[in-house]
């Protein structure tokens, strides 16, 4: 019996929905046999322009574009927003089709985590700082991310996988995991897509009441203040300027820190290398993260 669940309107729009790994494999077999390139865009759904930018890039480069759609419970901590995470599969299928996905893999929970599932992928160090600090989301979050992405890579075996700079720590963790575990996949990272007022697009913005939505713009103001002030060369002072922007909006950050973008070690001074400035904060009903990459920090004192 075929479990293929291809039905209108997404089928009309040219996207095929598969749920079982066996169906996924069958759907990919043709492209693989013919030597076509396979691109993967992992998502948890509730698609916005950030996700769509990744899908369009995959479409432009690969012969076959797969989007995974799975709200991964193992990356949510107790008391986090797993139950209320926004979901609308039909809408996601239509948007994915428009952005050029050929195949959406939306596995049921037991397909990803069968009974007795007990293997974890842990990226030591990188997964234990910033959001992975035990005082915050904790290392279990990135264990959940690395484990599910390893499974997605194994199931799809993509040539290229696309991720967003919005989740900079996730990018660092996945790059390291792919390197350490020899996944033959190229990782591509695209810039954060923002609302016109600078707020990074996020499925979690759906939790923001209008007043908090307004306050949330302070995150991007803080990051751009850090970047601006960093031009004068003093990173600690630049971070202070960022904290003042947050405080002015009544926002107490979980962190606002400067880190090496690859190994996430703290950066105390600007020395010409790129610096990741990352922020996380609860704003009303949402926990939001954002970051900015400061490039070319050497010799850029204001004129
Ligand atoms: P999510 O559905 O939140 O797990 O995100 C799926 C992918 O989309 C991840 O690689 C995210 O980094 C990426 N993404 C989320 N928000 C944005 C954004 N505003 N701009 C660019 N990429 C994003």
Bound molecules: adenosine monophosphate
The span between the termini is: 71 Å
Number of helices: 9
Order of helices and strands: EHEHEHEHHEHEHHHEEE
Largest sheet: 6 strands, parallel
Helix content: 25-40%
Radius of gyration: 20 Å
* Backbone shape: globular
**Tally of strands:** 9
What is the beta-strand fraction? 15-25%
Low-confidence stretches: 1-9
Strand order of the largest sheet: 1-4-3-2-5-6
What's the pLDDT, averaged over the residues? 94
Question: What structural class do the secondary elements suggest?
Answer: alpha/beta
Give descriptors for this structure.
303 residues, alpha/beta, three-stranded antiparallel sheet, disordered N terminus, binds adenosine monophosphate
Structure description:
By secondary structure, this protein is of the alpha/beta class. 35% of the residues lie in helices and 17% in strands. It has nine helices and nine strands. It has helices at residues 21-33, 49-61, 89-99, 109-112, 139-156, 168-180, 210-215, 217-230, 235-248, and strands at residues 16-18, 38-43, 64-69, 103-105, 160-164, 186-190, 255-259, 275-283, 286-294. Helix 5 (139-156) packs across helix 6 (168-180) and helix 8 packs antiparallel against helix 9 (235-248). The longest helix is centred in the middle third of the chain and has 18 residues, at 139-156. 41% of the residues are buried. Adenosine monophosphate (AMP) binds next to helix 2 and strand 5.
């Amino acid at each position: 019996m075929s479990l293929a669940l291809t039905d209108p309107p997404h089928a009309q729009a040219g996207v095929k929905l598969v749920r079982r790994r066996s169906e996924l494999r069958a759907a990919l077999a043709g492209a693989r046999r013919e030597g076509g390139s396979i691109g993967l865009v992992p998502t948890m759904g509730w698609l916005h322009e950030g996700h769509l930018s990744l899908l369009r890039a995959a479409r432009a480069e690969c012969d076959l574009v797969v989007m995974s759609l799975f709200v991964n419970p193992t990356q949510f901590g107790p008391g986090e927003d797993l139950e209320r995470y926004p979901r609308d599969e039909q809408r996601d299928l239509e948007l994915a089709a428009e952005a050029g996905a050929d195949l959406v893999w939306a596995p049921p929970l037991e397909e990803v985590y069968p009974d007795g599932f007990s293997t974890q992928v842990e990226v030591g160090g990188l997964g234990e700082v910033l959001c992975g600090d035990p005082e915050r989301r904790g290392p279990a979050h990135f264990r959940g991310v690395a484990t599910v992405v390893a499974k997605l890579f194994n199931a799809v075996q993509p040539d290229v996988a696309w991720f967003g700079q919005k989740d900079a720590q996730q990018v660092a963790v996945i790059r390291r995991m792919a390197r350490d575990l020899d996944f033959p996949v190229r990782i591509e990272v695209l810039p954060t897509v923002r609302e016109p007022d600078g707020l990074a697009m996020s499925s979690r913005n759906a939790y923001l009441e209008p007043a908090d939505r307004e306050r949330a713009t302070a995150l991007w103001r803080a990051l751009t203040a850090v970047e601006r002030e960093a031009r004068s060369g003093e990173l600690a002072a630049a971070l202070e300027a960022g904290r003042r922007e947050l405080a002015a909006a009544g926002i107490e950050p979980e962190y606002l820190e400067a880190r090496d973008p690859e190994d996430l070690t703290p950066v105390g001074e600007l020395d010409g290398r790129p610096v990741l400035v990352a922020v996380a904060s609860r704003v009303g009903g949402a926990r939001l993260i954002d970051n900015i990459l400061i490039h070319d920090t050497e010799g850029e004192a204001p004129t």
